[in-house]
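re the bet — no i am not wrong, look at it urself. input seq straight from the record:
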Amino acid sequence: MKETTNLAERMAAWEKKAAGETTNWTVLDPKDWSNFATKFEKLEDGSLLGGGDLQPGGVMRVSVETTLTNITGFRLEALKNPNLMYEGPDCSGREFSGEGVRGGGY
């Protein structure tokens, strides 16, 4: 099969360009949050600590207000806490994989 694209060259150029870019993350302050069975407490550092009944496949909604524009992505961090089983956030004792974490604007 004849190669009709210069994929390797384009990929190398993209990688070079992307390596030079930096991202300035801004921590957002949660204003409202909800989940059916889990109760959340906002801590001094702005993080949310969940507790209560665990519901597999549950949906968590977090609302924030921002003046930022042209947002192209966000990062959600699941932190460990000594007060949670296995120090959280995955109660199976495994590391949190982030599988099933999705975001969207509503």
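see?? The two ends are 46 Å apart (CA to CA). told u. also The mean pLDDT is 75. so pay up
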